[in-house]
């Protein structure tokens, strides 16, 4: 029993008893009222206080089960859950599959996006944002994804894009949501319909109207790594503009051309805040011309190779110091992790590194790429995902979802996914 709760309960009982005693004392003979009033208030207050405590103790004991079953926190059972869809919790100890299952991974991604769209109802970079950025890219081997997430993005932005309400998108994390939506819609157009849609064109134009004069976008500096700083967000914007079929060539308006120059200059002239952002700049340069010259891009690949582990994978914790994530808010938490400086390879960084290296022109037959692919093939978990420990909390580990997207995209870029019809 918690002492403050008991004290509060007794005081309430005494107060109630005193009021009853005061009322009953009014029935006494007038000459004796003062003395009887005092005794009535005191006795009834004490009796009711003692009775209240007894009732409380008896009720507490009656409510106890001889074998109590502890109720676990949501993340202790499920990473994502909605109605009959239950995705088990993400855990580093989850068993590894003997063979890679594309169908298990796709099921994990489809269900995760569905839950996020319906339950959380926002554009989240770690979940449905990663899904639409990467899932359409392996449609050739896995079939086109459901259009539900694309439609969710458009429905989410429809009240704002191209209207006076668009000003409301300038605050908080809404610019980041628009940037990630534009990147996902661009990927859909590039790999599913293979043509620029008017909806994607509209969101891309909206994205650049939200751009700041320094060439970047407002970033809340939270939820690393995918929403950690303005620089990384600008690389996603560059990917969006460069991925949408024919969009850069069709952007003829003077103000839009000016904003494209601002983005190019920002990415080219600003030093990335950490190696993780530098990896994304390399990726952006493969689709958005002028960010890096060929020699500078080749030089930017060297840190990636140096950070590759002996087992072939990469660890995201090697790509930034703890103080560099989330505006420094994660420093104490990350530095307290056992073995932070010798973190094991993870699915997110390994998948991302392979995607970037392949798009930068490194052949799939390069021995270092083959080692990375071997790591990916050996580390899919029973649920279909690839494990990656969160940089934010030790609860849901949503980074595993993006890791699964990147892992599949990397395997597809290396020709290691067997086509399936779903």
Give an overview in words.
The chain is mostly helical. It has two domains: 3-55; 76-413, Glycosyltransferase (Alpha/alpha barrel). It has 18 helices and two strands. The chain has helices at residues 3-25, 33-62, 74-77, 102-120, 125-134, 139-142, 148-157, 174-193, 198-209, 230-243, 247-250, 254-269, 275-285, 294-306, 331-335, 347-359, 367-377, 399-413, and strands spanning 78-82, 85-88. A two-stranded antiparallel sheet has the order 1-2. Strand 1 and strand 2 form a beta hairpin. Helix 1 packs antiparallel against helix 2. The relative contact order is 0.10.
| SSE string | HHHEEHHHHHHHHHHHHHHH
Number of domains: 2
The gross shape turns out to be globular
Low-confidence stretches: 60-69
By DSSP (H or I, 4+ residues per run), the number of helices equals 18
User: Separation of termini?
Assistant: 55 Å
User: For the record, what CATH class of the largest domain applies?
Assistant: Mainly Alpha
Query: Helical residue percent?
Result: 55-70%
- Beta fraction: under 5%
Quick check: average pLDDT?
A: 89
Structural class comes to mainly alpha
Instruction: Provide the CATH architecture of the largest domain.
Output: Alpha/alpha barrel
Question: How would a crystallographer describe the biggest sheet?
Answer: 2 strands, antiparallel
Count of individual beta strands: 2
**CATH topology annotation of the largest domain:** Glycosyltransferase
- Cα-atom radius of gyration: 29 Å
